[in-house]
Design brief:
2 helices; 18% helix; S16 Ribosomal Protein, Chain: A; Ribosomal_bS16_dom_sf; alpha+beta; Ribosomal_bS16; 5-stranded mixed β-sheet; structural constituent of ribosome; ribonucleoprotein
Length: 102
């Protein structure tokens, strides 16, 4: 079974909350996830100027070690949070400005 780490949208239209979940890659978009790993709330609430992320770094690392493939947006959030290093194997290789040499 191929497992993917991706975001699942929850909440009303202008107050979205993202759940990072482990889900079977071949399951439908609205299928039940295997496990919820994180909750990311991008809305700034009240006096606190920060966005909220609650996650289980141990469970995320467990899934990554067991072959789960994260989406690009998940890789970006995990890199910002310090769970992944900036040049890990999940990052896409950078191009050399589109110039090819022969």
């Amino acid at each position: 079974m191929v497992v993917r780490l991706r975001f699942l949208l929850k909440g009303p239209r202008h107050n979205r909350i993202f759940h990072m979940v482990a889900v079977n890659q071949h399951a439908r978009r609205n299928a039940a996830p295997i496990e919820t790993l994180a909750i990311y709330d991008p809305q700034v609430k009240g006096d606190d100027p920060h966005k909220t992320v609650q996650w289980s770094a141990e469970r995320i690392k467990y899934w990554l070690q067991n072959g789960a493939q994260p989406t690009d947006s998940v890789v970006k959030l995990l890199t910002l949070g310090g769970v992944l290093t900036p040049n890990s194997r999940y990052h896409k290789p950078s191009t050399s400005g589109g110039v090819e040499t022969k």
